[in-house]
């Protein structure tokens, strides 16, 4: 049962999938992502993804169970929709696992020319579910194996075969790698903000 203050915060937040503001969405879609895609290679994107993941594990490993699962309302962060601002560190990590596993599955399929009929829905990757106590360990195991699985199954990263992101439009496999990298950075910053609020 949520405490009254928590319920009030949830009620005041935007709906899942509402996204970031139109101005920030335009900036990301037409400036930030094209620049990152041209400047950062496939391998470099996953290097950064991995580095950010290890930072997240290090941050989460400092917390006891109560702190790990305590929900905190963070200030607005670039790339973070309003609905996602009231998470615990455990919720952020669960979300990253859901998204990471989806990337690990969908990017290789795209690279082989498979048409993905199911569109990505932001609502489907929200961590509003039961989260195991060993969520940090689960994420650590994922990070230790995802790169090898992804590399083994990927063919043409620049193929003209795309899947639509609900905020930013059509992405090919290479572009999805850039999005995955940026997504990891956004949520590492969110975890830092949560922990900062937990600290007296």
Molecular structure report:
This protein is 59% helix and 5% strand. The chain is mainly alpha-helical and 200 residues long. It has one domain: dinb family like domain (Four Helix Bundle (Hemerythrin (Met), subunit A)), CATH 1.20.120. The protein has a two-stranded antiparallel sheet. A hairpin with a 3-residue loop joins strand 3 and strand 4 (169-171). The mean pLDDT is 92.
How does the SSE layout of this entry go?
Layout: H1 4-12, H2 22-39, H3 42-60, H4 65-68, E1 72-73, E2 86-87, H5 89-111, H6 135-153, E3 163-165, E4 169-171, H7 173-198
Antiparallel strand pairs: 1-2, 3-4
Largest sheet: 2 strands, antiparallel
Helix content: 55-70%
Based on CA atoms alone, the radius of gyration comes out at 17 Å
The CATH H-level homologous superfamily? dinb family like domain
* Order of helix and strand elements from N to C terminus: HHHHEEHHEEH
CATH class: Mainly Alpha
Strand content: 5-15%
Distance between the termini: 26 Å
Structural class: mainly alpha
Number of extended strands: 4
Reported by name, the CATH topology is Four Helix Bundle (Hemerythrin (Met), subunit A)
- What overall geometry do the principal axes of the alpha carbons give? globular
Number of domains: 1
Uncertain regions spanning at least 5 consecutive residues = none
Q: What is the overall pLDDT average?
A: 92
Strand order of the largest sheet: 1-2
Please outline what is shown here:
With 200 residues, the protein is mainly α. Helices cover 59% and strands 5% of the residues. It is globular, with a radius of gyration of 17 Å.
